[in-house]
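Here is a protein:
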Amino acid sequence: MKGEKVFVLRFLQCRNPHLVDVPFFAKYSASATWFDDLKPAFGEKEFFFEEEKLPGKGDRGSTFLWE
């Protein structure tokens, strides 16, 4: 995808139920053996769920919206 080998991932379960079944991408790694070994794809510095402004990280009144 976009000239980069990637894994397409999604959470089957999560503390934040809004993140379940949302696809995200990690760089392909033949040596990765666990989720923590993966890095975000496409030059991103962190995965979308690591961002501080997601619901459940101190903002109880927010709504989660995907376009």
Q: What stands out?
A: The chain has no helices and two strands.
